[in-house]
Amino acid sequence: MINVTVVNLKTIIKYFIMLLILILCIFGIKQIFEKSKQIGKEFNNRVPNISFISCIKSTLPNLEKNKVIEEKNVAHSNTTSRSLGLRKILKVELQMLDTVREDGEENIEQTQTKEQIEMAKTDVDTKEISDNNITPKYNEVYGTVKIKNESNKEITQEILTPNISLENKKDVIIFHTHTCESYTTSEKFNYEMTGSYRTTDLNFSVARVGTELEKQLKEYGFLVTHDTTYHDYPEYSGSYGKSLETVKNILNSKPDTQMVIDLHRDAVGSKPEYAPSVQIGDETAAQMMFVIGTDGGGLQHLNWQQNLKFAVKVQQKADELYPGLFRPIIVRNSRYNQHLTKASTIIEVGATGNTMEQCLVSMKYLARILNEVNK
């Protein structure tokens, strides 16, 4: 009896050890499976296009089907099969994207193509339009350039002689003292005025004209800084003081800039239909006008004669290429912040009766003129 008992005890111990080994194996397999699952998740997070697939699944109808297949692969395979499944999804979706692009839908390259800018030609006929215009007045002449001197300064032929050359011919600053000035509405540029021919919407104000000039100048290689800060809103008074600070701040970072253009829209009294225009080829362009300040108002302005010479030089070239595009230069006592550089000017583009389209056409030709002057 004693021997039998010993034999049974050994058997029990043997089976107990086998059971223990089996439990350890099961635990080890479970740990390996959990580790494999964790690695799979980490790998899934490292694949950057998974979130992309989630975003575009509404436009790619086969995605859900591939996603179900992938989930089945994950449930019945290891990390390697997961990787293969993900690659398969990406391959399918990239092929579908190529198909979309071939069909011309959502063509990303096309939307990123540089905007085509139509540049001005010089061999075109120009004719001034008399409708909704007024007869220009002037009291000084230099060659083809007419000047209306409203200042208390004597303007001689020597002062008007455009013997000026800029050291920096490529940097240009464009800003707007009266940023909210706007034009007659049209089908394409239809907006709700927030004042008498005024709007805070930069897409319909003189700021949009400045944007067009910026685009055109850049096509010729100019380095343009276009500032669209509101200087006449919410208060109109003090506009020139505000714009002075704006230009000073820009010049602090670009101290060598000499061409500074304050772009405005003209208005004459209470004539909203006033629309000075010129026909250039098949296009109608708004006429433009230089306004040059002096020290006649008592403020120091050492650059006013240089500013005037620069305006005469530009207008000479304009009269050569597109006669009638510019009205007579106006010279006044006010300084208009033009004391900051030797080529600072106000350019008034059109009036209340002109449309935005006409003013945008003018910027095409103004850019060409400035490029010819600064060659």
What topology emerges from the helices and strands here?
Layout: H1 2-46, H2 49-56, H3 63-76, H4 79-102, H5 108-111, E1 126-129, E2 140-142, E3 145-149, H6 157-160, E4 171-175, H7 206-219, E5 223-226, H8 239-253, E6 259-264, E7 277-280, E8 283-286, E9 288-293, H9 304-321, E10 329-332, E11 343-349, H10 356-373
Parallel strand pairs: 3-10, 4-5, 4-6, 6-11, 9-10
Antiparallel strand pairs: 1-7, 2-3, 7-8, 9-11
Helix pairs in contact: 1-4, 3-4, 7-10, 9-10
Query: What structural class is derived from the secondary structure elements?
Result: alpha/beta
* Multimerization state: single chain
Largest sheet descriptor: 8 strands, mixed
How many helical elements?
10
- The CATH C-level name of the largest domain is Alpha Beta
How many individual domains? 2
Query: What is the terminal-to-terminal distance?
Result: 122 Å
The 3D shape can be described as elongated
The strand order across the widest sheet is 2-3-10-9-11-6-4-5
Q: Helical content, roughly?
A: 40-55%
Characteristics of this structure?
375 residues; alpha/beta; Aminopeptidase; three-stranded antiparallel sheet; 44% helix; elongated; disordered N terminus
